[in-house]
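#structure-requests
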Amino acid sequence: RILCLGVLATMSGNNPPIQQQLLDMGALKTLSDIFFAETDDTNGKLRARTMQAIGAAVRSHELAEAVFTQLEQSPALLVAGLGMGSENYSSTPQVLRSRALFLLQALS
């Protein structure tokens, strides 16, 4: 799954036709659901790849950015990715925090 998410991120990054297809398929919601459904990701690699794929799918695509920010779970996804919702910030893997910051930057 990690490899598939990496391929998805590579294909969709700065590629408006792919970004539009992902948007039309509802992939942003699906990816955010994957992020929260993963409970056995202690090293954060799967959630980091999921965050990377979301970031690549929305970066520089105005409509995708708007859709993502309107998703009910978007704020919680960013909070969890940055480690702000955990009691111990250092327990959030650095790779996940980096991907969450990258996504946040893409939205600004």
